[in-house]
Design goal:
Blueprint: H1 3-15, H2 19-22, E1 26-35, E2 38-41, H3 42-56, E3 61-73, E4 76-87, E5 95-107, E6 113-119
Parallel strand pairs: 1-6
Antiparallel strand pairs: 1-2, 3-4, 4-5, 5-6
Length: about 130
């Protein structure tokens, strides 16, 4: 699938605060885990969530995937990644975090891989 490159290509518009371009990586009915008990469904909600996240971090959030493992079957792929997040312009504290993220991709009718589930919290979602 070239999943590692797909994820890295998706990180660029997050880091550049270019959410119009970022939406090209998601399916129309995708789900984003905003935080362990909150999800955004569909491109419009996901776009609004990323805008709110960027504003929370004063537009300084940087996302980088350190390591990845991809399991693919047919038109579906699971990507488990060690994601590093940092934000150097957060006023109340410096923010840096590593997460083991999980992403699910599905190949659409044009043969393009689209993210259908974006869970940067990984297994942390079951702790609450």
């Amino acid at each position: 699938m070239g999943g590692e490159q797909v994820i890295k290509n998706a990180d660029r518009p997050i880091n550049k605060v270019d959410f119009d371009h970022l939406m090209e990586f998601y399916s129309e009915d995708a789900t984003l885990v905003v935080k362990p008990v909150t999800v955004a469904k569909g491109k419009e909600e996901i776009r609004r969530a990323f805008i709110a996240i960027a504003e929370y971090f004063n537009h300084s959030l940087i996302v980088n995937q350190e390591k990845m493992a991809i399991i693919e079957t047919g038109d579906t792929a699971l990507d488990v990644a060690q994601a590093k997040l940092s934000a150097n312009k957060k006023d109340d504290s410096e923010f840096s975090m590593e997460r083991t993220a999980t992403y699910v991709f599905k190949k659409d009718s044009t043969g393009t891989w689209r993210c259908i589930i974006d869970n940067s919290y990984g297994a942390e979602i079951i702790k609450n």
